Amino acid sequence: MSCRGGDFPTSLWISLYPYGEVKTYFFRKGGIRSLAISKQQKKEVIAQYADWLKNSGAVVVTEYTGLTMKDMDELRGKVRESGGEFHVVKNTLVKLALQKAGIDFDESQFVGSTAMAFAFEDAPATAKAIADFAKESPFVNIKGGFLENQMVSAADIKALASLPPLPVMRATLLAAIMAPATQLVRTLAEPGRQVAAVVKAYAEKDAAPEAA
Hints:
The structure is a single chain. This protein has two domains: 39-163, CATH 3.30.70.1730; 164-206. 51% of the residues lie in helices and 20% in strands. It contains six helices and eight strands; from the N terminus they run βββαβαβαβαββαα. It has helices at residues 39-54, 69-81, 91-101, 123-136, 154-161, 166-211; strands spanning 11-15, 23-28, 31-35, 58-63, 84-88, 115-119, 141-147, 150-153. Strands 5-6-4-7-8 form a five-stranded antiparallel beta sheet. The chain has a three-stranded antiparallel beta sheet with strand order 1-2-3, with no helix packed on it. Helix 1 (39-54) packs across helix 3 and helix 2 (69-81) packs antiparallel against helix 4 (123-136). The longest helix has 46 residues, at 166-211. The radius of gyration is 30 Å and the shape is globular.
């Protein structure tokens, strides 16, 4: 969009989802300034946040003040490897999305810069990706989060991060379930094997005189 006059923007650019963030910019002499987005655009962003929340087994809420774009890209890559996504969010809009979803939240988690990791596949792995990065970077701080739509603390997220990855937990659980089941099958099958052995013994005994 182009406008005339010193107090109007010379061009306008709306970016809804750069790293999940909602910003509207206009370019004019003297620099770049931001504009408020429209109600329709806000609805679209809230709907996007709601979709991420709905499809996440866990959500990690972080502060990222001071994080460089390079580090942001690195962190997003690590979260993506875990089967999740990492997005900068607008506090007012994400709170509306949480309210719409009926999820209780702590207002203190949504003050200042906020970015959220959405665990779409493996909650422990995504939490670990954030926790490990936060250990190395002073610019990433875990505020708290959500587990199965229930609000949890930063300590809970760190505890989640200490769990084995989902495939390992599944294998461990399966082994725990299968071990007694295998023993049970053997126990149930044992009388049948004993009966078969007795029948075989009698058959061999009856056949012995004929062979003689």
